[in-house]
Design brief:
CATH superfamily of chain C: Pyruvate-ferredoxin oxidoreductase, PFOR, domain III
CATH class of the largest domain in chain A: Alpha Beta
Distance between the termini of chain A: 61 Å
Number of strands of chain C: 7
Largest interface: A-C, 28 and 24 residues
Radius of gyration of chain A: 21 Å
Helix content of chain C: 25-40%
CATH superfamily of the largest domain in chain A: Thiamin diphosphate (ThDP)-binding fold, Pyr/PP domains
Order of helices and strands of chain A: EHEHEHEHEHEHEEHHHEEHEEHEHEHE
CATH architecture of the largest domain in chain A: 3-Layer(aba) Sandwich
Strand order of the largest sheet of chain C: 2-3-1-4-5-6-7
Largest sheet of chain C: 7 strands, mixed
Number of helices of chain A: 13
Oligomer: heterotrimer
CATH class of chain C: Alpha Beta
Number of helices of chain C: 7
Strand content of chain C: 15-25%
Distance between the termini of chain C: 22 Å
Helix content of chain A: 25-40%
Strand order of the largest sheet of chain A: 3-2-4-5-7-6-12
Order of helices and strands of chain C: EHEEEHEHEHHHHE
Largest sheet of chain A: 7 strands, mixed
Chains: A alpha/beta, B alpha+beta, C alpha/beta
CATH topology of the largest domain in chain A: Rossmann fold
CATH topology of chain C: Pyruvate-ferredoxin Oxidoreductase, domain 3
Number of strands of chain A: 15
Chain lengths: 399, 96, 181
């Protein structure tokens, strides 16, 4: 069922292969650690004639996304990638392709935000992009980095979606790791991503006005239309993942479960630490703890229905956040609480923050989270305030 | 301005406006507090007013004289300022 | 699954070594994962790379190797820099580039299994460069048998092109002379 050949590929190169096989027309990107290898590989492919695309060199990420918007408006298949501060510099322009419904595809090699300067992985950059109305999903390994980038083109360009789509791969943990994966045949990928035609492109023979200004009398209507259209992408995303699953033998779901049979407690993760968490679940299960794992694959649009289904038999959710919403706690934890409020009053949700700025997350940390969360539930039941813990943070104060 | 009555279901994908050049239906003439008047007896038909008009609302008539289209003319007075023969004057719009 | 830590200095090719072995293992149908220890690389500064190879199961763990089965030390000076040997598993193997005799190293380091080679001299002689990573491949294979020696030829050719031959020669030379006990 898993068609293709087994290869050893770095995560960045797996993404570049997906972009090449998708026969991308225009690439515009600015290199930044840890995304650099993706851009380097793609520019090599274009220079060597292995990919017939225009590579637009730009002076910043802001310009990169601006070039992508223009190229996409002309009807091209467009790709870019960035990370951390680069996504922040790009931020202003990220809202444009989504509200203009331009199917740009991007990969983010997730990285912490300054200061202090950190090139290492966490999800601070992702969390700053929550409201950009791009379809966003998380990869856990290099296979998924390839598969989800391939799917991203199909999803973004689908006539019932037409929203830009971003695949999150954790910086270094995926971008710089070489591992074995299945690389499908080029023709099969090409067959999965047919040419597309946007209903409105820049065309002198059929002129339209794009990106007009929206005075108060119409702006609310535009945002309502955008929100409804974005919400309505969910079934198509699943259908496209189903189609990919049938063709290539790997099935993706908005919320994916691991060992949830009979579980009363579940860890919640996103991204590259998820398989490490699976090993923690294996060890805890072997020790008699009824614990499972829930991974958020689809981050936007948020998978409310699938999440509620996944937690229906649980007493406790233990959420790992790789970012802080300062003054608010863990952003994923907040969102889960919000998504489940009024649905499951008896479900306790305890959040932890970890893996900030490249701090390693070992199996032992997940086991610690599960044990600590159960303690915290007792404290919550006694009416105590429970603060969010940053795993492994040193207290100091003895000087 | 157009579009005031549209609901969200009426909007095109990406809010594109499919009627090309529809800015021409946008009336700017009601921005005007002064209107240009001209003395065509002294006009030398040089066309400088036509060239300088920022709204491009001045057109040439059959006799070669120039006239502002008051649907668009904002009353900025640049034509009056630029006219080498001072044949254009600006007068206050009267209340109707 | 075998877990390996490779200690080197920026420029010595610790990360490349991990990548080459990962490619070789994957070409043999094994599962492998190479992972740099994520830092801004600076020539001369201590560098750590991780490698995991599994015969049967897919490698799920995606975190640093904390208790390696095998330790590769590209620069003997690093033995003084930090806590290099202490995390090695009790039944683990250390593969060390050193100009000292095997017996001297054996008496100085308390490790279960030790492999030593003067990789620097081989690299200088065969490659004409003081870069020991490909030479150390030979020592590593001799000590661990983690992949076949010939499985590294294709990855070396892919990586180094024309100069692959010399690197293969250096690797083979080290394989021949490495002392393991």
């Amino acid at each position: 069922m898993t068609k293709g050949k087994i290869v050893g590929l770095e995560g960045s190169f797996a993404v570049a292969e997906a972009v090449r096989m998708a026969n991308t027309d225009v690439i515009s990107a600015y290199p930044i650690t840890p995304q650099t290898h993706i851009v380097e590989r793609l520019s090599e492919m274009v220079a060597d004639g292995d990919l017939d695309a225009d590579f637009i060199c730009v002076e910043s990420e802001h310009s990169a996304m601006s070039a992508c918007v223009g190229a996409s408006a002309a009807g091209a298949r467009v790709f870019t990638c960035s990370a951390g501060q680069g996504l922040e510099l790009m931020h202003e322009v990220l809202y444009i392709p989504s509200s203009m419904r331009l199917p740009v595809v991007a990969v983010a090699a997730n990285r912490a935000l300054s200061a202090p300067l950190s090139v290492w992985c966490d999800h601070s950059d992702v969390m700053a992009l929550r409201d950009i109305s791009w379809v966003q999903m998380f990869a856990e390994n290099n296979q998924q980095a390839f598969d989800l980038t391939t799917c991203a083109f199909r999803i973004a360009e689908d006539k019932d979606v037409l929203f830009p789509t971003m695949v999150h791969i954790d910086g270094f943990y995926l971008s710089h790791v070489i591992e074995d994966m299945v690389l499908p045949e080029e023709e099969e990928v090409a067959g999965f991503i047919p040419d597309y035609k946007h209903p409105f492109v820049l065309d002198p023979d059929k002129p339209v006005s794009m990106g007009c200004y929206g005075p108060p009398f119409i702006y609310s209507e535009t945002k309502k239309a955008q929100d409804v259209a974005f919400d309505n992408t969910r079934p198509r995303i699943q259908e496209i993942w189903d189609e990919f699953g049938e063709l290539f033998g790997r099935q993706y779901l908005p919320v994916e479960s691991y060992k949830m049979e009979g579980a009363r407690v579940a860890l919640v993760t996103m991204g590259s630490c998820s398989e490490t968490a699976m090993l923690a679940v294996d060890e805890l299960r072997a020790a008699g703890v009824d614990v499972g794992l829930i991974r958020l694959r689809l981050w936007r649009p948020f998978p409310f229905k699938e999440l509620r289904e996944a937690v229906k038999d649980l007493d406790l959710l233990v959420v790992l956040d790789r970012a802080i919403s300062f003054g608010m706690g863990g952003p994923v934890c907040s969102e889960l609480k919000s998504a489940l409020y009024n649905k499951r009053e008896d479900l306790k949700i305890v959040g932890f923050i970890g893996g900030l700025g490249g701090r390693d997350i070992q199996i032992s940390e997940f086991k610690y989270m599960v044990t600590q969360a159960q303690e915290k539930v007792k404290a919550i039941e006694r009416g105590k305030e429970v603060e969010t813990v940053i795993i492994g943070v040193r207290e100091g104060g003895g000087r | 301005m157009g579009g005031e009555g549209l609901g969200w279901k009426d909007l095109e994908i990406g809010f594109v406006v499919t009627e090309p050049g529809n800015a021409s239906s946008y009336k700017t003439g009601d921005w005007r507090s002064e209107r240009p008047i001209r003395d065509n007896e002294r006009c030398i038909k040089c066309g400088l007013c036509y060239i300088y008009c920022p709204e491009a609302c001045i057109h040439e008539d059959e006799e070669g004289h120039f006239e502002a289209d008051l649907y668009y003319c904002k009353g900025c007075g640049i034509c009056a300022h630029e006219c080498p023969r001072n044949v254009i004057g600006m007068v206050e719009e009267k209340e109707e | 699954m075998i877990e390996i830590c490779i200690y080197g200095r920026g420029g010595q090719g610790a990360v490349t070594l991990a990548e080459l072995v990962a490619h070789a293992a994957i070409s043999e149908g094994k599962h492998a994962q190479s992972m740099p220890s994520f830092g801004p690389e600076r020539r001369g500064a201590p560098v750590l790379a991780f490698l995991r190879v599994s015969e049967t199961e897919r490698i799920k763990i995606r975190a640093e190797v904390t208790e390696p089965d095998v330790l590769i030390v590209l620069d003997p000076g690093l033995l003084q820099v930090g806590d290099v040997v202490s995390r090695l598993k009790k039944d683990g193997t250390a593969v060390i580039n050193t100009m000292k005799s095997h017996d001297e190293m054996k008496s100085r380091l308390s490790v279960n299994k030790l492999a030593t080679v003067d990789a620097m001299s081989i690299a200088r002689e065969v490659l004409g460069l003081p870069i020991v990573n490909t030479t150390m491949l030979g020592a590593m294979i001799k000590a661990t048998g983690i992949v076949k020696l010939e499985s590294l030829e294709a990855p070396l050719e892919e990586r180094f092109g024309k100069v692959a031959t010399k690197n293969i020669e250096a690797m083979n030379e080290a394989y021949a002379v490495t002392v393991v006990s």
